[in-house]
Amino acid sequence: MSACGTRAISIIAFIGSVFSPWYRWSGRRSPDNNVCINVATYGRGGRWTMTDRGRDALRQTEDSFTVGPSGLSWDGTTLTVDINEVSTPHCQRVQGTVKIHPAAVTGVEVPLTADGAHIWRPFAPTAEIEVDLGRSGWQWRGHGYFDANFGTRALEADFGYWTWGRYPTKAGTASFYDVARRDGTDLEVALSFDRTGGVSVMDAPPKTRFRRSNWLVKRETRADPGTTPRQVKAMLDAPFYNRCGVETTLHGERVSGVFEALDLDRFRGPWLMPMLAVRVPRRPGWNFGD
Predict the structure, then answer these.
(1) 70-80: per-residue pLDDT in tens?
(2) What is the DSSP letter of 162?
């Protein structure tokens, strides 16, 4: 998010594009044949890109990840994202560079299921971000975050609902993962990260509901007793997924960060896939020699 709070960007690199209808329709047999770098910008003139590509578009090295015309690279201190995508439905070019400068890189891994089939890896919970998309108003700096999720089963096979939140604090970053598993158990993760990469388990305030999304997705995050979180910036609003800027209170500190809610009961409904196909075009071929 920008320091002024008016702009934001989300970038997700996929091998096995979990929200792609094309991946589901393929039977999810070949993750490397459904790859994507999803870029969403929020604020005036915000755009959405999520092109599902085939295995010919994928290139990987120890310190780089490329999908067609876009890619990520790591030089030991900075993660650089080179973006060259086309938005839907506007069909406009989204092109430029984003740099994420971590304050530190953690060694934390959190299993989200008892058998370790799903792992959350918060690489850099505290970071600075530098955005230059070559358009008026889209050169800015702010606070950033870099994590990853790994899984060997479909999300909707193991989870019914989850929320995630990341809030910059005076000490560094507070991050929450609250998961309702399909086996009837719940997982509650509350971690505090300092600026050197140190991590400690938080005494988490209670889960507190706030207004549902426009698609009526349930939303709840952590907040001190007697306080209520509130949305301060609209971002992604979908029938099964909500991302927004949220202000809440944690141990007396008023903080603003990014919140996500994912309703996987809705996501596994077959009625949703044709809707997603409109926002997620499929481009199976790519030639790096072009």
Answers:
(1) 999 999 999 99
(2) E
Note whether residue 134 is domain-resident.
yes
On whether residue 64 sits in a domain, the answer given is yes
CA distances 194 to 90, 118, 203, 246, Å, are 40, 25, 15, 21
The answer to whether position 34 is within a domain reads yes
Q: Which domain covers residue 132, as residue numbers?
A: 8-283
What predicted TM-score, i.e. pTM, was given to this entire model? 0.94
**Exposed, middle or buried: residue 34 (CB in 10 Å: 0-12, 13-18, 19+)?**
buried
* Residue 94 CA neighbour count, 13 Å, CB half: 29
Question: Per the structure block, which two tokens stand in for 30?
Answer: 């070949």
In this model, does residue 290 exceed pLDDT 90?
no
Number of structural domains in the chain? 1
In the chain, the amino acid numbered 251 is: H
H-assigned helices in 184-284: 264-267, 272-279
Using one digit for the tens of pLDDT, what is the confidence trace for 183-205?
A: 999 999 999 999 999 999 999 99
Domain presence at residue 288: no
The secondary element (H helix, E strand) that includes residue 123 is strand 118-132
